[in-house]
Amino acid sequence: MGVVTSPKQDRSRATRQRLLEAAVGCLAEHGWAGSTVSAVAERAGVSRGATQHHFPTREDLFTAAVEYVAEERSSALRALPSQDRRTVVAALVDLYTGPLFRAALHLWVAASNEPQLHARVTELEARVGRESHRIAVELLRADESVDGVRETVQGLLDMARGLGLANLLTDDTTRRDRVVAQWARLVEESLSSSS
Amino acid sequence: MGVVTSPKQDRSRATRQRLLEAAVGCLAEHGWAGSTVSAVAERAGVSRGATQHHFPTREDLFTAAVEYVAEERSSALRALPSQDRRTVVAALVDLYTGPLFRAALHLWVAASNEPQLHARVTELEARVGRESHRIAVELLRADESVDGVRETVQGLLDMARGLGLANLLTDDTTRRDRVVAQWARLVEESLSSSS
């Protein structure tokens, strides 16, 4: 962006990123109960003091982490070269089967029982959800002014979320590939007939 | 079934059912961390000793509870009078937005981090998943010998699971109703054209 930053600012930003990535990894592997600030600081190789400087509370750290990684993934998805719709459907579903989804899932489920997380995670989920929807509409070249198109795309993202959940305990890749191929076909037909 | 049971057996069965229902309620409201055997015994009004007689371990109690309630719901669904496919789609999605889904979700997520739960919940999820699929095929009068039909139905259940997750932190009813109406239309068209 041409903004000049000092070496100190660069180091601070790099530390912050290391913490955010460690937090997502920790959440994905150990769940909310196993994800303490100390565990993340140790995983990132950052002192406890520096960690608290960046993120005063556990809630700050983990909501920021899920948001940061979601934004990284969104940017990567937007940067993809233009592709046919079936490939786009597969790429969208892939967003829901990796460590980011696992981390987000642990955070959502924890938030359903922890009042201090609930408001923040609800707000985060709404923001990430809107952003995923915008990206999906763009990549699928879907015309939302046509009746039902918005809901077709939303249902596709709901299906992707459900496929992510089905992949939590076992490797569901083989079944998922077949489901995605079929629904990519149905979504393609539906969007083509409505454009 | 015409099997003669003694009053003692009847009482024992009633106690077991009370425990199972209390366990699902506890899991849905408080999550895995808040769901101890003592909390369930108290909620059900059953002594700790009687509870341990029925369910020697915490894992026994909660996996049995999710399975029991899933079976109750399946039976209720099978007992529905024959309906048009769009109504069936809505009824299937409803299965994933109530306390049973919340309880199962907490159990799945806990199992992803707790080795002693993992194998049992994986096996339970596979069994409940196959049963939901069978019921969906039957109610939708879907002909799985036709290419793609099996995957259409599976994707619909994956979408329902994703809608359940979207309903975890906020009441998603308004959005969900629109998505379900549109996907019911897509499923209806797809199944009609392939029969």
TrEMBL record, chains A, B:
<feature type="DNA-binding region" description="H-T-H motif">
    <location>
        <begin position="36"/>
        <end position="55"/>
    </location>
</feature>
<dbReference type="InterPro" id="IPR050109">
    <property type="entry name" value="HTH-type_TetR-like_transc_reg"/>
</dbReference>
<dbReference type="InterPro" id="IPR009057">
    <property type="entry name" value="Homeodomain-like_sf"/>
</dbReference>
<dbReference type="InterPro" id="IPR001647">
    <property type="entry name" value="HTH_TetR"/>
</dbReference>
<dbReference type="GO" id="GO:0000976">
    <property type="term" value="F:transcription cis-regulatory region binding"/>
</dbReference>
<keyword id="KW-0238">DNA-binding</keyword>
<feature type="domain" description="HTH tetR-type">
    <location>
        <begin position="13"/>
        <end position="73"/>
    </location>
</feature>
<protein>
    <submittedName>
        <fullName>TetR/AcrR family transcriptional regulator</fullName>
    </submittedName>
</protein>
<dbReference type="Pfam" id="PF00440">
    <property type="entry name" value="TetR_N"/>
</dbReference>
<dbReference type="GO" id="GO:0003700">
    <property type="term" value="F:DNA-binding transcription factor activity"/>
</dbReference>
